[in-house]
Amino acid sequence: MTQEIKQVIVVRSDLAMGKGKLSAQVAHAAVLAAEKTRKTRKSVYKEWTSTGQAKVVVKVNSLDSLMNIQLLAETGGLVTAIIEDMGLTQLPPETVTCVGIGPDYSSNIDKITSSLKLL
After folding, report:
1. In what order do the strands lie in the sheet with 80-84?
2. Is the per-residue pLDDT at 96 higher than 60?
3. What pTM, to 2 d.p., does this model score?
4. Contact at 8 Å (CB) between 11 and 119?
């Protein structure tokens, strides 16, 4: 039996982004983290793409919480991608909106994100 592989995107819920903005930020995180994984962990990336590219979106309520999750993930050996908004519409430039984690084995990601609530 193979282990489940997924990607988790952690979003700041304190920013009051519109649905379109939020969706775009999550997409940026998913793509950037996946590309980083494709370059650094080819076998995990290949298995993830062949098994449905599972993604989970969870939330935190502050920048500090988001950066803490990112640090724990990176320290735990996971690929991460921090997304900063360009500031062209709803948010000031360089606002950190979310972080993509993985794809990686669920058992590795869950150590860091399992306590977070779904968006």
Report:
1. 80-84, 96-105, 5-12, 55-60, 117-118
2. yes
3. 0.95
4. yes
